Amino acid sequence: MSDSSDPAPAELGTASKRPLRILIGADTFAPDVNGAARFAERLAAGLVERGHEVHIVAPAASRKHGTWNEVHEGQEMVAHRLYSWRWYPHDWLRFALPWRIKRNSARILDEVQPDVVHFQSHIVVGRGLSIEAEKRGIRIIGTNHFMPENMLEFTLIPKAWQEWAVGLAWKAAKRTFGRAESVTTPTRRAAEFLERYTGLRGVHAISCGIDAHKYSPNWEPRTENRILFVGRVTGEKQIDVLLRAALLLPAELDAKIEIVGGGDQLKALQHLADELGIADRVTFTGRVTDEELRDAYHRATVLAMPSIAELQSIVTMEAMASALPVVAANAMALPHLVHDGENGYLFEPSNPEDLAAKLRTVLEADPAELRRLKEGSMRLIEAHDIQRTLATFESLYRGEAVADPATDPASAARED
């Protein structure tokens, strides 16, 4: 990370009393549907709500590109949409052109003159913005949402070359994040992961946060056993493991599976459900509105999260705020949210037998035990209030030292 000098105390005192002009750079942003895009959208909207001027730099969602105002999460901000190309191995992803990014970054930075640049990815937009912001002496904050498993299946790189390609990606990440005054990622495990693969030190663990009041628990007695998955329908989410686990559940449970989200694996998974003979118990809804998603959380008995590539999982936090128990793969940052036996259960990644066993534990629980798990989710999600996240980033934007917010209540209790 760069050794940019902090402002003098007098400057900090003045700066902290005025709104900031913040430029957020992202390789994926609304209307894209994924964790990184959702975090950037909520961060931007929350900062506007707190009185700051926010500019977004992101690939255009269509052939139309330029600068205009957009409304996200009810808040208006300025969007600088870059000319983009569709990445056809992916079902919707578009990317800004790498050979234009430095020129576009320089132009936008000179027009906006932000107090701080906060990039969400090192891949294209973050690289260009960090290079040009460093030249201009603008404070840079970087947040990592990158996981190789989320990218490899869309690169068309042969399997034999993928390890080499991942190594190059981490070297590129080290260069880009090395220009930032502060580097963040959503959880401590994700921070350790980033430090291990880049050699960076002092990475902050700052939760993506959730606006929990937008979700409400459903305490009514369940009338069916419904297992919910929400997310992109792609390979690294391992939804096939969930379908194979469903086949192993006792018939008397009459468990229904609801898959919410779109993606390139949708037809393959529908075919797999047919092959397994469970198509009549599996519903693929595709993408849904926010209101329809909240209804899905209310219908469900348990959220299943078989993904092996989650740096935090906003979906899991939404489910917890809706008082759902969660059965999740014991991989990456999911154990940070799912405390085994407290608000759900962890299963061995890629193991449908273990997933089925843990789902049975929830589905066969008596009402008192199920309520205990639901209350566990409500209790654990309290530490992920987005207002804490916004306040921490505001401090970083002003060059103030921060302590990573405690997002594990058990850990926080041990420290007291």
Automatic annotation (TrEMBL):
Residues 33-212 form the Glycosyltransferase subfamily 4-like N-terminal domain. PANTHER family: SULFOQUINOVOSYL TRANSFERASE SQD2. Keywords: Glycosyltransferase, Transferase. InterPro entries: Glyco_trans_1 (IPR001296), Glyco_trans_4-like_N (IPR028098), Glycosyltransferase_grp1 (IPR050194). This is D-inositol 3-phosphate glycosyltransferase. It holds the Pfam family Glycos_transf_1. GO terms for biological process: carbohydrate derivative biosynthetic process. Residues 221-372 form the Glycosyl transferase family domain. It comes from the Bacteria. GO terms for molecular function: glycosyltransferase activity. It comes from Agromyces mediolanus (Corynebacterium mediolanum).
